[in-house]
Each structure stands twice: as structure tokens, then as C-alpha cells.
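haha ok so turns out i had the wrong file open the whole time. this is the CORRECT one, sorry everyone. sequence first:
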Amino acid sequence: MHAQPSGPSRKKTGPSHASAGPEGFLTDEQASAMRRLMDEQVLVNQALAVRVFAYERATEALQKAKSRLQELMARERAAHEAERKRLSRALRGSLSQNLLAIRFDIAALHRQTRERHPRLHATAGVALDNLDHTLRLVRELLDGLWPAGLDLGLQGAIEIEVAKFRHASGLTCVFQGEISGNTPLPEEAALTVFRVLQECLANVLHHAMASRVLVRIHQASDRLVMVVADNGIGFDPGSARAPDCLGLLHMEEHATAARGTLKIMSVPDQGTEIHLWLPVNMPPASPIG
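then structure:
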């Protein structure tokens, strides 16, 4: 009988799947983990691509909706202004003329009763004053509907509006610039400039506490730029969305509807500048309907 060798017995085992393989190679577990990681990365990339594509589609849809909204605003504004123009011209041709005819008759009565009928003369004088006041109100209302000065062109309309502002406010108001007659200015653009100017001057009169206003206009072949600057108390443009700043909102609406841009620059106690950039070679918006 052969004697067994002393000492602990050694059992041969095969290679372990968990043990590290030769240098430079992955074990089965490591390769499986790597495949799972790559599969997960593919899923993440696919989900990210879906989200990016959805974001691009949403952005494109939002831009289209914004463009459509601007187009609808422009068309609605064109229809609104066309109706205002029609009413203004109709009323100028009827109401104003009738009131002037009545004034002519009362003025004649006022002259003829000066010596023999003093009481009737006084009554006619009061009626004449009331009628003159009514005529001024009617002119203001009709100009609000459609400024008659625009029939003279934008240059003449602005000069008239600046002169009216100087007379009503007592402030220094200077107009600089000249609107070129070589490049026809669309009626929509001219009306937008005039409406924004009116809002600017109204804000200066009621809020700015200014002593001087500068209106500057420059027209190029493709755009018109207007700047209205005052030396008033200024304000924080961040608060321009407050309910008491409707004039600024109206200016922005006018500019947006005419595909223009409005920028408000103001610092408390350092005055305000309002810049309007307006394209002048855009096709006019057709009224709705």
C-alpha cells in the first residue's frame, strides 16, 4: 500500500468567471455590465433626441403662432383704422359743416341785435360761445378718429401736432429731421408714427414734468426711426407694465401691429427716450373680412 502524502489536500478547480482575465480584456461580468451601460445610454440618447425634436417643433409652432397673431393684429388694426377714417371723413363732411352753418346764422343774429335788442344780443352771444366750444370738441374728436393733418403728409402732420403740443403745454418742443419724399411712406407706417408720437407727447404732458421735448425723425430706404426725448423725471422701465402706464402699452401695440420695434430708455431723474423703428417697405395689412 502506498502512503498518502501528508499535508492539506489541494483540489484543482477550473478558471473562475469572476476572476480577472488576461491583461487588456474584460471579464464576462464586466462585458455584460458594459453592454447594459451602452444599452441604457442608447435609450437616454433616444429620449433626449425625442425631447429635442419636440422642443424644436414646439418652438417652430410658437413662432408660427406669434407671426399669425401679429398678422391678425395688423389686419384688425387696419380694419379699425379704416373705419375710423371713414367715420371721420363722413362726420367732417356733414356734422362740421352743419355746425358751421348754424354758427354763421347765430353770428348774424348776434350782429343784428347789438343795438335794438340787447337781451337777445346777449343770449345770441352766449349761444355763439357755446357753439364755438362745441366746434372745438368736435374737431378734437374727429382728429382722434383720424388726424386730418395726415392728408398733408406725415411731415406736415407732425409739425402741426408739435405746434399744438407747444400751445397746450407751454413747453419747449423741437422737431428735427425731414421725411424724404423720394421713398413713398405707406399709410399704415405714417399712422403708426403719428399715433406713437401722440402717446409720447401725452405721457410727457401728464407724467414727465419736463421742460423740453425733442422729436427727431430719420427715414432711410427701408425703415423710419423716430426718437422722442424729454428732460423730465424719468421712471423705471421695469414698472412700465403697471396699470397706470397704459400709454406705453398702447405704443407697443401700435409698433407691434405695424411690424416695428419700440424701445423705452429711462432713468429716474434723468429723463426718458422712446425709440421707434418701423419698416417702410412692408406690404400693407389687408382688413379682416
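The CA atoms of residues 32 and 251 lie 66 Å apart.
again sry for the mixup
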